[in-house]
UniProtKB/TrEMBL annotation:
This is Signal peptidase I. Its main location: membrane. One of its GO terms (cellular component) is membrane. It comes from Methylocystis heyeri. Keywords: Hydrolase, Membrane, Protease, Transmembrane, Transmembrane helix. Signal peptide: none annotated. GO terms for biological process: signal peptide processing. Residues 121-288 form the Peptidase S26 domain. InterPro entries: LexA/Signal_pep-like_sf, Pept_S26A_signal_pept_1, Pept_S26A_signal_pept_1_Lys-AS, Peptidase_S26.
Length: 306
């Protein structure tokens, strides 16, 4: 049996090693220093605090508080991580040499690193992204003016499923699997539901014979049209120099009809057809970051997506 009190088993902890281990995984440096309980609590605080706080900020907090709460949760998680690094370095530097336990070997630290990161990624990040909230970005201008190229927005994944409280409705800005390449996600506005009759009379949109479009206002080389479905209102854009043909569709069962808000510069159901209802995975909720050619667009951060 190993004698834990023999001189060869008593050695000071190395501050650099402790700090690097906590850099790789919050709390791992504390475990290296022999503070198993502290290390586990730091890891749990970083993982669960960040995940639970982030979900609350993005899904349950009022829209006006989302951005500051999300930033606060992020700073809190970073604070726990940095605090773990500093504490591990300090304890290793100032602590007295202690007996090395049988489990304090490099292989054990490597195993904890792999298990901890697997828990973070597969248990928390993947679970949250699949079932609660996920971040997407818009690379182009197909949803202008609602979403601009360079907008990063949060999508509510508690949507369009048997136990979900919120179901698909006309006017939703939905994220779905692109029918022509299922490795991509698209974001468009849901215009029609199964069985609906959709008609475009030039720039005027009708759903089941009722006008969705209302006032049109010129804006440079574009025409901005207000649209409304029930209580939901949004704006769309058309190019002045482009004609809009008269077309009609009847939506088949288990499908939806989607359009981009930038009606002349988008690929939507007019080109790739109806979207299977099962492929609609989430509803765009709020912009959490935005950057354009001139830099960060601060005025868009926290904006609710209508």
């Amino acid at each position: 049996m190993t004698n834990l009190t023999s001189p060869q088993n008593v050695a000071p902890r190395r501050p650099l090693v402790a700090a690097l281990l906590s850099t790789a995984l919050p709390g791992l440096g504390q475990i290296y220093n022999g503070e198993l309980n502290k290390g586990l609590w730091l890891f749990l605080g970083f993982a669960l605090g960040g995940a639970v706080g982030g979900v609350f900020a993005t899904l349950y907090a009022p829209s006006a508080l989302m951005a500051p709460l999300f930033a606060l949760v992020t700073l809190l998680a970073l604070g726990i991580w940095l605090g773990s690094i500093v504490d591990a370095w300090r304890v290793a530097r100032l602590g007295e040499p202690t007996p090395r336990r049988d489990w304090q070997v490099s292989g054990f630290y490597a195993l904890l690193f792999l298990l901890g990161n697997a828990a973070l990624y597969f248990g928390l990040v993947s679970g949250v992204n699949a079932h609660l909230v996920r971040s997407f970005t818009t690379p182009g201008a197909s949803m202008t003016p609602s979403l601009l190229g360079g907008d990063y927005f949060l999508v509510d994944m508690r949507y369009n499923c048997p136990l979900c409280k919120e179901h698909v409705a006309r006017g939703d800005v939905g994220v779905f699997v692109y029918p022509d390449d299922r490795t991509f996600y698209y974001v468009k506005r849901v215009i029609g539901l199964p069985g609906d009759h959709i008609a475009l009379r030039g720039r005027e949109l009708l759903v089941n014979g009722e006008r969705v479009s209302s006032a049109a206002v010129g804006d440079g080389d574009r025409i901005v049209v207000a649209e409304q479905s029930g209580e939901r209102k949004w704006r769309v854009e058309w190019m002045k120099d482009k004609s809009a043909p008269d077309v009609e569709w009847v939506i088949p069962p288990a499908s939806v009809f989607v359009l981009g808000d930038n009606r002349d510069e988008t690929k939507d159901s007019r080109s790739f057809g109806f979207v299977p209802l099962a492929d609609l995975v989430g509803k765009a909720r709020q912009i959490w970051f935005s950057k354009g050619p001139a830099g960060v667009r601060w005025e868009r951060i926290g904006k609710t997506i209508d």
